[in-house]
């Protein structure tokens, strides 16, 4: 998927390391008030599905992993995915990326997850979860190494494997720390002898796959030569050796995935010249007859000329010998496809050529065009072992499935992976929610239980949204900003249902679109600009709906503009570099400093204005707490009930109350959680629980101005979660 993590972004010592094994905390009840029911606003996938694993011994059971959105279990009877890692909390945000999934063919209820989103120095170490009830409950083993589920190579094969000879033995391949082994079902881990030397900036082990009683390991740090092996094997679980006769050359530099046909005793291996999902321009497919050691090149189509790509996913049909499916990856000119063979790779058929795609359930997959594409970033491919015509493949945005090898539709219900950036709950109109998102722009949610019928906001289509705002006194007027190929800003006069691009935009908008604000009556726009590398630029102002723009030199560079909900002439901005609140009373033409001496240097802050109240400002300053001003930012007072504040929003007031409900992602004496206050932050009630935490949730939260108690929460990889009292 994407650049999706929050901005805060040990090698095993000796021959053994004991990981801490802890039971997950029980459902919290003491700090909660009225029980909340939490659900996901349906968008339909929207993220990179990096792996799918059908259980070989149980019909209709499968697991999926994502790069930042956790793991899921498929139930064929209901046709839905169930999230398995929503219990991971704020401090464990790095564990929402799933590096690998493993199942035990001999024990159908056992499942294992290797978790860790980033292997960078600023990220925490990985962990392994194990379950005896298909992911309903977990036990956890913390590792002393890092994993990288959202880094290059995240679409490679499963790096976690139950040993085919012993269900108590597990193998875990890491990116920078070699091979780990557990002999107590994942409770403790130690380094295993492995002949390849880890590379600090490399890929390490790209997959582990069982072939009979042997285990094969792909190695991603080879140069494709015979002298530097990229495929290893162990037959006894102790000694690893290079596989003889393996292919060499650029097209076989990195082994991506492997699948074993137990009916023919052949191992299919896909290769590329880079780990992917980006950067691949060459690749091949080879198979190894494990009984003789003979290799055969079975590449369906050679990359070349303008048609450059690598090979990614591979799956075999457990019911039909010699039947396999492989995927191309990073094939932009001719569009990626699946190739299927029924004769052991002698001939192949492109399934894309006869595919009929039905995306009526998730219309955003048209990406603003007339017809959807077959997909991109195809590295996860799986064939149902109980149904040869049930095939699924993951893309950078969804999971397609077929039951007849011709008609395809998203098989994605229950799986939501959006990284959400902005939220609006309009006070009027059909939609109760508009969201600004990573990768899929802005969505107008006609319904919370179905993917938006309009798909992504078009005209223009954005990749990632950087700004979203609604005129407080004219709710039909909405503006948005983001990364787009045909414009970076747009407005709507019907509450976000249809859009038009600004008649003009500042030149800097193409390279540095940032947050945008609109004043109370919709007559003035303020657009801030921040390059993707973090460089801020002067804000620009428009008083003619984006036809002309002028620079506002007194606006603090890179700040997020906020409009007063009552006074059209008033805007606010917090300068984190100096810890100063700035305000404008002339429609954004000039800004003056007001309160100073506030916490500075923290990029994770939020300035909000209470709806319907002029000058009633709330400032979230992360670990430094929550501050409030009732005089337009001239002075601020710290809110004593809040220890830390990450994001804050407002909703309909409680019955009998005059002030809007306040919703907070932050910390009180009860810990970091989602809270609601019905008394202007005098007291808080926790409204989420220990099973609904979703990792890092600091981007946005807002209540519904029409329904007291309903709250919408932006997550970094689990879409929009919304809660209601029950």
TrEMBL record:
It comes from the Bacteria. The keyword Signal applies. PROSITE patterns: TAT (PS51318). Residues 1-30 form the signal peptide. Coiled coil: none annotated. InterPro entries: TAT_signal, WD40/YVTN_repeat-like_dom_sf, Xyloglucanase_GH74. Keywords: Carbohydrate metabolism, Glycosidase, Hydrolase, Polysaccharide degradation, Signal. The keyword Signal applies. Belongs to the glycosyl hydrolase 74 family. This is 1,4-beta-glucanase. It comes from Streptomyces lanatus.
